[in-house]
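Write out this protein's structure.
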Amino acid sequence: MENENSSPKEIKFEATRKNLQLPRRIFHIFNGTVIATLYLFYIEHSFAVHTIGIGVCLFYIFEQLRLKYPEYASAFSKISSYFYRAEEQLKESAMIPYSMGLLLTILSFPKIIAVIAIYTLAMADPLSAIIGIKYGKHPIFENKSIEGSTAFFVATFLCIYLPFHFYIGISWGKNLMFSFILAILMTFFEMLPSRLDDNLTIPIVTSILIWIVASLWNIPLGQP
């Protein structure tokens, strides 16, 4: 008979960055894409800031409870095992820098830039990981391959070109070169080894580069 006084069993996460972990990556794509689309077409700047800010705080509280009381996290083991990695056993998950990256981007940059940065984080980052893990045969750096970086470049190019085409309306030739240059710059940045979480750095660096290049080329960015 099971001891009634025994504490709940602590769960262990086993996945690493080298695992495909599709539920986590699909959630990453879905979550960011929905936020960027809603912000572009339906949500005002102030509402987005307040909503995401509240979400960041609530999720941080949840993460602190998970870390301080790991024995009770077993109640969510069937779900959490699909979304957490081994490295997140004793520290906050990547959702903290992810949500902080979204909030800082929306707070600091015009709407079109923030939307592109969120789309890039939501789509280019997980797609490059999926392609790199499944089909990466030509490594460049640790955890980076030509196949994965190519996927990142293509996704980033589309995430820049399409919003500028439909939302800003610059000429297709100028937009093509603008998107190509920025996608190249972001792909090189994504390949660089860094100890910082790319969920935080990708949207911020994307936004800064777009802002700089657009200013140099006199491309209108609209209002926040």
